[in-house]
Amino acid sequence: MRLCAWYLYGEKHRGYALNPVANFHLQNGSVMWRINWMADTSPRGIAGSCGMMVNYRYFLEDTASNSAAYLGTKQIKASEQVLSLVSQFQQNSKL
């Protein structure tokens, strides 16, 4: 879960999220809300994301500012759950 959070939040291509689905939702002003363990146990889900899924949440009053922040300063808006997992990854990583 920590590695998944880091991949979605921290791995970048030209400053934007490396994952194309994350990039799509973040460009549209969402918040990276929750990472779910074993949410997709289909063969494709296991092969593609080890069964993990991410929820992106749209707060309508914040979508324009979130989108502008992501597109302008490449700042990703994320929940405490996601940020906690990112922090844990950074503390324990040897990367």
TrEMBL record:
Gene Ontology CC terms, in alphabetical order: mitochondrial matrix; peroxisomal matrix
User: Highest taxon of the source?
Assistant: Eukaryota
A Pfam family of the record is MCD
Biological process (GO) annotations? acetyl-CoA biosynthetic process; fatty acid biosynthetic process; malonyl-CoA catabolic process
The entry lists its GO molecular-function terms as: malonyl-CoA decarboxylase activity
Q: Which residues form the Malonyl-CoA decarboxylase C-terminal domain?
A: 1-58
The residues the entry assigns to the signal sequence are none
Question: What name goes with this protein?
Answer: DCMC protein
Say which species the protein is native to.
Answer: Upupa epops (Eurasian hoopoe)
State the encoding gene: Mlycd
